[in-house]
Amino acid sequence: MNYQEIHPPEHLRNHIRYCWTLESEHAENSTTPFRTMADGCPGLIYQPKSEGTLYQGNKQLSDLFLFGQSTRYAELQLTGNFQAIGIHFYPNALKTLFGLPAEELTNSCLNLEDLVKKKHPALSDQLLYAPSANDQLKILFYFLDMEQKSSLHLQDAAMKQALAQIIQSKGLVPLKSLQDDLGLSERSMERKFKAYTGISPKLFSRICRFQASLIQLRNNEYDKFSDIAYENNYADQSHFIRSFKEFAGFSPFQYQKKSFEIVENLNQLRPS
């Protein structure tokens, strides 16, 4: 696997965390299983079928698709080669960049080809015939910049503040105090946050806490699993392991032994 991480242009950094390109060479008819982990963020992937095809279960994904928030892990299969570009957005980008109701895309994908053909009819062909991945990224940045200019009015200052505080606290900020600071009831806070990010503030907080524990695991910043559980405010090690399985699809021990993380939160599964 040839993986490269790329910083977004300055004018899109309020919406994009990072971008990546991934290239691989498999036998033409080979199938490679992957698992994605919940990370609190939506994204976009361009994977031309001329190189390889991505499937989620029995569903064939389009060349260019947008995915929403995931509330748990998901299984993908690739038939052929990876020649993919990924754009990893911030949690609120479906609303603030695309003007989409974020909750409708939770645990789902949207074929972007139809949207692109309506708004930018030449873009699909430009992507197909671009000479390199960097050229394809420039084309996608142009498309996203056009989307950004038409959605400048969709920011929500209160939800932006709530999102920032949950992320900065690694999911540990008390939601009641956050609601009080924003002058919102629990029901109003949940409704507005779901519309802004696609999931409830409680679930988003749990995913942030899982991601903080995952970073410790990746970086080997612990002596035993109970250290990670304690530092991330889990009741005990068993609660930590149960939460990890929910969002990653395997236990912390299995993650270390049976997976190969080629892109952040995307694992190529190894045979048992």
Q: Low-confidence runs (pLDDT<50, min 5 residues)?
A: none
Distance between the termini: 20 Å
Approximate strand percentage: 15-25%
CATH class call of the largest domain: Mainly Beta
Q: What about the largest sheet?
A: 6 strands, antiparallel
- Cα gyration radius (Å): 19 Å
Structural class: alpha+beta
The largest sheet has its strands arranged as 1-2-9-4-7-10
pLDDT averaged over residues: 91
Residues in helix, %: 40-55%
Work out the helix count. 11
Shape: globular
Q: Looking at CATH, which topology of the largest domain would you report?
A: Jelly Rolls
Protein described:
This protein has 272 residues and is of the alpha+beta class. The chain folds into 2 domains: 2-152, Jelly Rolls, CATH 2.60.120; 157-269, Orthogonal Bundle (Arc Repressor Mutant, subunit A), CATH 1.10.10.60. 41% of the residues lie in helices and 22% in strands. The strands form 2 sheets. Strands 1-2-9-4-7-10 form a 6-stranded antiparallel beta sheet. The chain has a 6-stranded antiparallel beta sheet with strand order 6-5-8-3-12-11. The longest helix is centred in the C-terminal third of the chain and has 18 residues, at 201-218.
Features:
alpha+beta; globular; six-stranded antiparallel beta sheet; Jelly Rolls; 11 helices; 272 residues; 41% helix; Arc Repressor Mutant, subunit A
Write the SSE topology.
Layout: E1 2-6, E2 16-23, E3 31-36, E4 43-46, E5 52-56, E6 59-60, E7 64-67, E8 74-80, E9 83-89, H1 93-96, E10 109-111, H2 112-119, H3 123-129, H4 133-149, H5 157-168, H6 175-182, H7 186-197, H8 201-218, H9 225-231, H10 237-248, H11 252-258, E11 259-263, E12 266-269
Antiparallel strand pairs: 1-2, 2-9, 3-8, 3-12, 4-7, 4-9, 5-6, 5-8, 7-10, 11-12
